[in-house]
Amino acid sequence: MTRLILASASPRRLALLQQLGYAPEVMATDVDESPRPGESPDALALRLAHSKGLAAATARPEAVILAADTVVALGDRTFGKPCDYEEAVQMYTVLGGLWHQVHTAVAILHRGRVDQRLCSSAVRLRPLSSAEMRAYWDTGEPVDKAGAYAVQGIGAVFVSGLQGSYSGVMGLPLFETAEMLAACGLSPPCLSGHP
């Protein structure tokens, strides 16, 4: 049986795959996530997903490798994981009240082939007060999240609108991912009755 490798340390991506019945092996990869000069946010997400997948495929060429990357953007400006509270405040201040984009790229590498998809959604955060910013930061939730919020967690109370894929904003668009894995012979186990 073909082994599925999740090239990500994200507990959210793992949980989403498990929701579909997959039991992937987790293999975190370490790639430089810095944008290149002039690189658009969607191109950055695609490149990083591909790079993470390649890093895992080198170690496990026989497996189906699934890698993903999520980039939060307002126009051409990207918002990564905040380094500290001050950077998170800057993000909330800029994003508050505006629609922004969340680009999640998925890459599947199998038998020397690469299949990539980009899922782009629009999210609107309401403006946050200083007290809300501090209280939210102190929960610990925003620390490892692009854009310094989690749509599936406490941060949902600040999300006033979402157009697109909810699971894509979480970090793994399930519709696209299930289609891509099925094309590799790994249909969602939750639909086939097999573990």
UniProtKB/TrEMBL annotation:
InterPro entries: ITPase-like_fam (IPR029001), Maf-like (IPR003697). It comes from the Bacteria. The record marks 12, 70, 152 as: Important for substrate specificity. Its cofactor is a divalent metal cation. It catalyses: dTTP + H2O = dTMP + diphosphate + H(+); UTP + H2O = UMP + diphosphate + H(+). NCBIfam families: maf (TIGR00172). The active site is at 69 (proton acceptor). Nucleoside triphosphate pyrophosphatase that hydrolyzes dTTP and UTP. May have a dual role in cell division arrest and in preventing the incorporation of modified nucleotides into cellular nucleic acids. Belongs to the Maf family. YhdE subfamily. This is dTTP/UTP pyrophosphatase. Its main location: cytoplasm. Pfam families: Maf. One of its GO terms (cellular component) is cytoplasm. It is found in: Cytoplasm. Keywords: Cytoplasm, Hydrolase, Nucleotide metabolism. Its EC number is 3.6.1.9. The keyword Phosphoprotein does not apply. PANTHER family: BIFUNCTIONAL DTTP/UTP PYROPHOSPHATASE/METHYLTRANSFERASE PROTEIN-RELATED (PTHR43213), BIFUNCTIONAL DTTP_UTP PYROPHOSPHATASE_METHYLTRANSFERASE PROTEIN-RELATED (PTHR43213:SF5). GO terms for molecular function: dTTP diphosphatase activity; UTP diphosphatase activity.
